[in-house]
Amino acid sequence: MQANTSPLERLIDLSNDAPSQERRNLLREMTDCLLAAPDRYTIKEMENFDVLFSRSSLIMERKLSRILAMALTKSNAPREIVQKLLIGQNTYAAQILRRSVTQTSRDILATIRERATQQFNAPAKSPSADDRTIPENRYSIPSTMMDEMYRFHYIALRHKIISEMGPDIAPLLDRTAKRFRTKTLEDTLEEARTEVIDAKRVIADKVKYNQLTEELILELIETRASTEFLYAFAAKIETDIATAQRVLNDMTWEALCVSCRAANMSRGLFAKLVYSMQKRDSDQTPALRIIGLYNKLPTDSAERVMRFWQLRSTSMNEIDDTEEEEEAENTAPVIEPQKVAATGTTPGFGRA
């Protein structure tokens, strides 16, 4: 076996009589790309934090861009600059959506955990006719983080506009950003919270009534219903949201290949997923490579990787490697398939 082959290619070529140590090492290498960093979200209250944070960031940039564009229009700014500001939305958001800032910022992570624990232990709210008021405590972002998010987007947009119009426009931008700050923060979080809760509820209903089909997932991709797609994808591959996001963020697409194959997704759907995530012209070659490997991966090998992930994810503490590998080889999943629940929390390995 060539040293430069990928873990997925080695998994495809792995013989049934391969040494136990070789199988164990390969299973561990494959599941490393599925496991989130062990220092992230060790409380179940934060199950949906990443998706809420991501949606809030995108929504906030869109709102702030429109507000600044409105101010520029009233000041008779050149039309092409206003159009460029609006068309270029979400460019900066990608910098903080690839890997959440909480992965590297211990101070912010501590704030999140403290805030979430306070919310989780707060007295239960009285029942309401609107389901959204029931789980609201679990769909929140600390105000310090929202402030920082606003500051991040404003600085980026301010720099972009000043580079086009010069420093004289800065006072107008600063006044506008200050004036609309509070309302933008409030509206952003409420819109993101509603979007996440509604998406989770819709997909939970699809799972409940056995309507989570490949056709539905294709429709969500085509219509760019990203939040619904994320919950649908997580339910389809039977993982928590954290793992689903990690799979989708793996730009080698090998984690996607394994999880989709284990879920018996068709090659056509897998190809659609890969093509929808291409960002550069240079992605074409690796995309064709991974699509070509899809049907070569034995389904039982992919299922074994996912069972091994489940065993590892049930405890972030290292347990005996041999015991893990033997369990993955010889038993069914040690936890029930993780579906998106209609209410309550999403099962997972300790983070959202």
Describe, in plain words, how this protein is organized in 3D:
The protein has 352 residues and is an all-alpha fold. The protein folds into two domains: 7-41 and 210-330, no CATH class; 45-206, no CATH class. It is 62% helix and 0% strand. It contains 16 helices and no strands. It has helices at 7-13, 20-32, 49-74, 79-87, 94-97, 106-120, 143-165, 170-208, 214-222, 226-236, 241-249, 254-262, 267-276, 284-294, 299-313, 321-330. The radius of gyration is 22 Å and the shape is elongated. The two termini are 37 Å apart.
In short:
With 352 residues, this protein is mainly alpha-helical. It has helices spanning 7-13, 20-32, 49-74, 79-87, 94-97, 106-120, 143-165, 170-208, 214-222, 226-236, 241-249, 254-262, 267-276, 284-294, 299-313, 321-330. The model is unreliable at 36-45, 89-109, 119-136, 316-325 and 331-352 (pLDDT under 50).
